[in-house]
Amino acid sequence: MDYKLISGLVEKYWEGETSLEEEAILREFFSTPHTALPPDLEEAAPLFSYLHTEAVREVVWPGEETKVVKLSPVQHWMKYAAMLLMALGLGYGLQHRGERAEITETRITAQHMEDDPRYALEETKKALRLLAKNLNKGTTQMQKLSYFNDATEVIEGK
Amino acid sequence: MSLERFLSQVVPVRQKLYRFAYRLLGNEEDAQDITQDALMKVWDQQEKMADLQNAEAWCMRITRNLALDKLKSRKYRRHDDLDHAGELPAQHQQNPHAMSEQNDVMKKVHATIHALPEKYRTILQLRDIDGHSYQEIAEILDLDMNEVKVNLHRARKAVREKLQNLQVYGL
Questions:
Q1: Cα distance between residue B137 and residue B111, in whole Å
Q2: CATH topology of domain B93-169
Q3: In whole angstroms, what is the distance from residue B171 CA to residue B166 CA?
Q4: Domain RNA polymerase sigma-70 region, which positions (chain B) (predicted)?
Q5: What is the pLDDT of residue B120?
Q6: CB < 8 Å to A11, chain B
Protein backbone atom coordinates (compact mmCIF):
# COMPACT_ATOMS: atom_id res chain seq x y z
CA MET A 1 0.00 0.00 0.00
CA ASP A 2 1.23 3.45 -0.85
CA TYR A 3 1.44 5.48 2.34
CA LYS A 4 2.81 8.61 0.71
CA LEU A 5 -0.50 10.46 0.77
CA ILE A 6 -1.06 9.60 4.43
CA SER A 7 2.54 10.47 5.33
CA GLY A 8 2.08 13.85 3.67
CA LEU A 9 -1.13 14.44 5.60
CA VAL A 10 0.51 13.43 8.89
CA GLU A 11 3.31 15.88 8.25
CA LYS A 12 0.77 18.60 7.53
CA TYR A 13 -1.09 17.62 10.68
CA TRP A 14 1.97 18.07 12.90
CA GLU A 15 2.49 21.48 11.31
CA GLY A 16 -1.12 22.41 12.01
CA GLU A 17 -1.94 22.87 8.34
CA THR A 18 -4.54 20.16 7.74
CA SER A 19 -8.18 20.87 7.00
CA LEU A 20 -11.02 19.21 8.87
CA GLU A 21 -11.55 16.82 5.95
CA GLU A 22 -7.90 15.78 5.93
CA GLU A 23 -7.96 15.20 9.66
CA ALA A 24 -11.04 13.01 9.23
CA ILE A 25 -9.17 11.00 6.58
CA LEU A 26 -6.30 10.46 9.03
CA ARG A 27 -8.58 9.34 11.83
CA GLU A 28 -10.35 6.97 9.47
CA PHE A 29 -7.07 5.57 8.18
CA PHE A 30 -5.71 4.84 11.64
CA SER A 31 -8.99 3.38 12.89
CA THR A 32 -8.00 0.06 11.31
CA PRO A 33 -4.70 -1.75 11.93
CA HIS A 34 -2.09 -1.66 9.20
CA THR A 35 0.97 -3.81 8.78
CA ALA A 36 4.45 -2.60 7.95
CA LEU A 37 3.80 1.07 8.48
CA PRO A 38 6.65 3.48 7.87
CA PRO A 39 8.14 4.98 11.07
CA ASP A 40 6.42 8.35 10.74
CA LEU A 41 3.02 6.68 10.56
CA GLU A 42 3.92 4.19 13.26
CA GLU A 43 4.66 7.14 15.51
CA ALA A 44 1.33 8.84 14.77
CA ALA A 45 -0.81 5.69 14.89
CA PRO A 46 -1.56 5.60 18.66
CA LEU A 47 -2.66 9.24 18.73
CA PHE A 48 -4.98 8.94 15.73
CA SER A 49 -6.34 5.66 16.96
CA TYR A 50 -7.16 7.34 20.28
CA LEU A 51 -8.69 10.37 18.57
CA HIS A 52 -10.86 8.13 16.42
CA THR A 53 -12.05 6.09 19.41
CA GLU A 54 -12.88 9.24 21.36
CA ALA A 55 -14.66 10.78 18.39
CA VAL A 56 -16.97 7.82 17.97
CA ARG A 57 -17.40 7.17 21.67
CA GLU A 58 -20.95 7.81 22.81
CA VAL A 59 -21.18 10.32 25.59
CA VAL A 60 -24.92 10.53 25.90
CA TRP A 61 -26.89 12.82 28.15
CA PRO A 62 -28.55 10.42 30.55
CA GLY A 63 -31.26 12.82 31.64
CA GLU A 64 -34.86 12.57 30.60
CA GLU A 65 -36.34 14.57 27.78
CA THR A 66 -36.90 18.19 28.70
CA LYS A 67 -40.42 18.86 29.81
CA VAL A 68 -41.69 22.40 29.87
CA VAL A 69 -43.96 22.93 32.82
CA LYS A 70 -46.03 26.07 32.66
CA LEU A 71 -47.11 27.38 36.03
CA SER A 72 -50.36 29.28 36.36
CA PRO A 73 -50.27 32.52 38.40
CA VAL A 74 -52.20 30.77 41.17
CA GLN A 75 -49.30 28.34 41.56
CA HIS A 76 -47.09 31.28 42.48
CA TRP A 77 -49.01 31.64 45.76
CA MET A 78 -45.84 31.52 47.86
CA LYS A 79 -44.52 34.57 46.08
CA TYR A 80 -47.69 36.53 46.78
CA ALA A 81 -47.83 35.29 50.37
CA ALA A 82 -44.27 36.46 50.92
CA MET A 83 -45.09 39.86 49.45
CA LEU A 84 -48.14 40.20 51.71
CA LEU A 85 -46.12 39.23 54.79
CA MET A 86 -43.45 41.73 53.93
CA ALA A 87 -46.03 44.50 53.47
CA LEU A 88 -47.62 43.66 56.83
CA GLY A 89 -44.25 43.64 58.53
CA LEU A 90 -43.30 46.98 57.06
CA GLY A 91 -46.65 48.51 58.05
CA TYR A 92 -46.35 47.23 61.59
CA GLY A 93 -42.80 48.51 61.84
CA LEU A 94 -43.69 51.99 60.61
CA GLN A 95 -46.69 52.20 62.92
CA HIS A 96 -44.61 51.48 66.00
CA ARG A 97 -41.71 53.60 64.93
CA GLY A 98 -43.36 56.88 66.16
CA GLU A 99 -44.19 55.36 69.53
CA ARG A 100 -40.70 54.08 69.99
CA ALA A 101 -39.24 57.48 69.10
CA GLU A 102 -41.45 59.18 71.71
CA ILE A 103 -40.47 56.72 74.43
CA THR A 104 -36.83 57.13 73.56
CA GLU A 105 -37.12 60.94 73.73
CA THR A 106 -38.73 60.76 77.18
CA ARG A 107 -35.99 58.45 78.40
CA ILE A 108 -33.28 60.74 77.07
CA THR A 109 -34.89 63.76 78.80
CA ALA A 110 -35.15 61.88 82.10
CA GLN A 111 -31.53 60.86 81.85
CA HIS A 112 -30.56 64.43 81.04
CA MET A 113 -32.40 65.71 84.09
CA GLU A 114 -30.69 63.23 86.34
CA ASP A 115 -27.32 64.28 85.02
CA ASP A 116 -27.92 68.04 85.07
CA PRO A 117 -29.83 69.55 88.13
CA ARG A 118 -30.12 72.98 86.46
CA TYR A 119 -31.82 71.44 83.49
CA ALA A 120 -34.06 69.52 85.87
CA LEU A 121 -34.99 72.79 87.64
CA GLU A 122 -35.81 74.48 84.32
CA GLU A 123 -37.93 71.56 83.24
CA THR A 124 -39.78 71.57 86.61
CA LYS A 125 -40.45 75.29 86.35
CA LYS A 126 -41.72 74.82 82.85
CA ALA A 127 -44.05 72.11 84.05
CA LEU A 128 -45.29 74.20 86.99
CA ARG A 129 -45.88 77.20 84.73
CA LEU A 130 -47.97 75.05 82.48
CA LEU A 131 -49.89 73.83 85.51
CA ALA A 132 -50.36 77.34 86.88
CA LYS A 133 -51.54 78.59 83.52
CA ASN A 134 -54.29 76.01 83.44
CA LEU A 135 -55.02 76.05 87.16
CA ASN A 136 -57.45 79.05 87.31
CA LYS A 137 -59.05 78.42 83.98
CA GLY A 138 -62.19 76.82 85.48
CA THR A 139 -62.75 79.30 88.38
CA THR A 140 -65.08 81.67 86.45
CA GLN A 141 -67.30 78.76 85.56
CA MET A 142 -67.21 77.55 89.14
CA GLN A 143 -68.19 81.05 90.34
CA LYS A 144 -71.17 81.06 87.98
CA LEU A 145 -72.11 77.67 89.33
CA SER A 146 -71.87 79.03 92.84
CA TYR A 147 -74.25 81.95 91.96
CA PHE A 148 -76.63 79.46 90.49
CA ASN A 149 -76.54 77.39 93.67
CA ASP A 150 -77.16 80.48 95.86
CA ALA A 151 -80.07 81.54 93.68
CA THR A 152 -81.57 78.08 93.84
CA GLU A 153 -81.37 78.08 97.65
CA VAL A 154 -83.05 81.54 97.85
CA ILE A 155 -85.89 80.32 95.65
CA GLU A 156 -86.34 77.20 97.68
CA GLY A 157 -86.46 79.38 100.83
CA LYS A 158 -83.67 77.76 102.65
CA MET B 1 -35.75 35.09 24.22
CA SER B 2 -38.99 33.25 23.99
CA LEU B 3 -39.50 29.77 25.30
CA GLU B 4 -39.80 28.55 21.70
CA ARG B 5 -36.41 30.02 20.85
CA PHE B 6 -34.83 28.42 23.88
CA LEU B 7 -36.30 25.06 22.96
CA SER B 8 -35.26 25.33 19.33
CA GLN B 9 -31.77 26.83 19.73
CA VAL B 10 -30.45 25.90 23.15
CA VAL B 11 -31.98 22.59 24.19
CA PRO B 12 -30.76 20.73 21.07
CA VAL B 13 -27.19 21.79 21.94
CA ARG B 14 -27.50 20.18 25.36
CA GLN B 15 -25.88 16.94 24.20
CA LYS B 16 -22.84 18.83 22.92
CA LEU B 17 -22.61 20.84 26.13
CA TYR B 18 -22.72 17.67 28.18
CA ARG B 19 -20.02 16.06 26.07
CA PHE B 20 -17.87 19.16 26.41
CA ALA B 21 -18.40 19.34 30.17
CA TYR B 22 -17.64 15.64 30.48
CA ARG B 23 -14.33 16.08 28.67
CA LEU B 24 -13.39 18.94 30.95
CA LEU B 25 -14.45 17.31 34.21
CA GLY B 26 -14.02 13.63 33.43
CA ASN B 27 -17.04 12.80 35.53
CA GLU B 28 -20.60 12.10 34.37
CA GLU B 29 -22.42 13.43 37.42
CA ASP B 30 -20.48 16.68 37.52
CA ALA B 31 -20.89 17.07 33.78
CA GLN B 32 -24.66 16.73 34.19
CA ASP B 33 -24.72 19.32 36.96
CA ILE B 34 -22.61 21.75 34.98
CA THR B 35 -24.77 21.29 31.88
CA GLN B 36 -27.89 22.02 33.89
CA ASP B 37 -26.26 25.07 35.43
CA ALA B 38 -25.18 26.26 32.00
CA LEU B 39 -28.72 25.94 30.66
CA MET B 40 -30.03 27.89 33.64
CA LYS B 41 -27.46 30.59 33.07
CA VAL B 42 -28.30 30.82 29.39
CA TRP B 43 -31.95 31.25 30.33
CA ASP B 44 -31.09 33.94 32.88
CA GLN B 45 -29.03 35.84 30.32
CA GLN B 46 -31.54 35.37 27.55
CA GLU B 47 -31.55 39.06 26.57
CA LYS B 48 -28.01 38.60 25.22
CA MET B 49 -29.12 35.93 22.78
CA ALA B 50 -30.57 38.43 20.33
CA ASP B 51 -27.15 40.03 19.75
CA LEU B 52 -25.28 36.75 19.28
CA GLN B 53 -24.18 35.36 15.95
CA ASN B 54 -23.34 31.93 17.29
CA ALA B 55 -25.56 30.92 20.19
CA GLU B 56 -24.01 27.46 20.35
CA ALA B 57 -20.50 28.84 20.88
CA TRP B 58 -21.86 31.12 23.58
CA CYS B 59 -23.52 28.21 25.37
CA MET B 60 -20.28 26.22 25.18
CA ARG B 61 -18.31 29.16 26.56
CA ILE B 62 -20.68 29.38 29.52
CA THR B 63 -20.31 25.63 30.08
CA ARG B 64 -16.54 25.84 29.97
CA ASN B 65 -16.43 28.74 32.42
CA LEU B 66 -18.66 26.90 34.86
CA ALA B 67 -16.60 23.72 34.51
CA LEU B 68 -13.36 25.60 35.07
CA ASP B 69 -14.85 27.29 38.14
CA LYS B 70 -15.72 23.87 39.47
CA LEU B 71 -12.24 22.58 38.77
CA LYS B 72 -10.75 25.58 40.55
CA SER B 73 -12.96 25.26 43.60
CA ARG B 74 -11.00 24.08 46.58
CA LYS B 75 -13.40 21.31 47.41
CA TYR B 76 -13.27 19.79 43.95
CA ARG B 77 -11.06 16.85 43.25
CA ARG B 78 -10.94 15.90 39.62
CA HIS B 79 -12.19 12.41 39.01
CA ASP B 80 -9.48 10.83 36.95
CA ASP B 81 -11.16 8.99 34.14
CA LEU B 82 -8.13 7.00 33.07
CA ASP B 83 -10.19 3.94 33.89
CA HIS B 84 -12.62 4.92 31.17
CA ALA B 85 -9.75 5.08 28.72
CA GLY B 86 -9.03 1.47 29.62
CA GLU B 87 -12.58 0.57 28.62
CA LEU B 88 -12.13 1.81 25.10
CA PRO B 89 -13.28 -0.83 22.67
CA ALA B 90 -10.25 -2.33 21.03
CA GLN B 91 -11.67 -2.84 17.60
CA HIS B 92 -10.32 -5.45 15.26
CA GLN B 93 -8.30 -6.98 18.06
CA GLN B 94 -9.43 -10.44 18.94
CA ASN B 95 -6.30 -11.51 20.73
CA PRO B 96 -6.52 -10.74 24.49
CA HIS B 97 -2.85 -9.90 24.65
CA ALA B 98 -3.15 -7.51 21.71
CA MET B 99 -6.26 -5.98 23.28
CA SER B 100 -4.51 -5.44 26.54
CA GLU B 101 -1.56 -3.88 24.73
CA GLN B 102 -3.88 -1.63 22.76
CA ASN B 103 -5.65 -0.52 25.94
CA ASP B 104 -2.32 0.24 27.50
CA VAL B 105 -1.37 2.42 24.55
CA MET B 106 -4.72 4.21 24.70
CA LYS B 107 -4.22 4.94 28.38
CA LYS B 108 -0.82 6.41 27.68
CA VAL B 109 -2.16 8.64 24.92
CA HIS B 110 -5.03 9.66 27.16
CA ALA B 111 -2.65 10.52 29.99
CA THR B 112 -0.44 12.47 27.58
CA ILE B 113 -3.33 14.59 26.36
CA HIS B 114 -4.63 15.13 29.89
CA ALA B 115 -1.22 16.26 31.05
CA LEU B 116 -1.41 19.22 28.65
CA PRO B 117 -2.32 22.66 29.97
CA GLU B 118 -6.10 23.12 29.98
CA LYS B 119 -6.15 25.52 27.03
CA TYR B 120 -4.05 23.24 24.81
CA ARG B 121 -6.06 20.21 25.80
CA THR B 122 -9.41 21.86 25.15
CA ILE B 123 -8.34 23.18 21.75
CA LEU B 124 -6.96 19.79 20.77
CA GLN B 125 -10.15 18.03 21.83
CA LEU B 126 -12.43 20.53 20.13
CA ARG B 127 -10.52 20.24 16.90
CA ASP B 128 -9.28 16.67 16.70
CA ILE B 129 -12.12 14.86 18.43
CA ASP B 130 -15.18 17.05 17.97
CA GLY B 131 -14.12 18.38 14.57
CA HIS B 132 -14.78 22.09 15.18
CA SER B 133 -13.38 24.68 12.80
CA TYR B 134 -10.82 27.24 13.95
CA GLN B 135 -13.49 29.93 13.83
CA GLU B 136 -15.83 27.91 16.05
CA ILE B 137 -13.07 27.17 18.55
CA ALA B 138 -12.14 30.85 18.64
CA GLU B 139 -15.76 31.73 19.42
CA ILE B 140 -16.15 29.03 22.05
CA LEU B 141 -12.96 29.96 23.87
CA ASP B 142 -13.23 33.68 23.16
CA LEU B 143 -9.81 33.74 21.51
CA ASP B 144 -8.34 35.14 18.36
CA MET B 145 -8.30 32.64 15.48
CA ASN B 146 -4.53 32.88 15.09
CA GLU B 147 -4.15 32.20 18.79
CA VAL B 148 -6.20 29.03 18.33
CA LYS B 149 -3.95 27.89 15.47
CA VAL B 150 -0.77 28.62 17.42
CA ASN B 151 -2.03 26.85 20.53
CA LEU B 152 -3.21 23.85 18.53
CA HIS B 153 0.18 23.59 16.85
CA ARG B 154 1.92 23.74 20.23
CA ALA B 155 -0.46 21.18 21.71
CA ARG B 156 0.15 18.72 18.87
CA LYS B 157 3.89 19.31 19.11
CA ALA B 158 3.84 18.63 22.86
CA VAL B 159 1.83 15.44 22.35
CA ARG B 160 4.17 14.30 19.57
CA GLU B 161 7.27 14.84 21.72
CA LYS B 162 5.74 13.01 24.65
CA LEU B 163 4.66 10.09 22.46
CA GLN B 164 8.11 9.92 20.86
CA ASN B 165 9.64 9.71 24.32
CA LEU B 166 7.20 6.98 25.23
CA GLN B 167 7.94 5.00 22.10
CA VAL B 168 11.73 5.45 22.18
CA TYR B 169 12.51 5.54 25.88
CA GLY B 170 9.32 4.18 27.40
CA LEU B 171 9.14 7.31 29.59
A1: 23
A2: Arc Repressor Mutant, subunit A (1.10.10)
A3: 5
A4: 14-75
A5: 95
A6: none
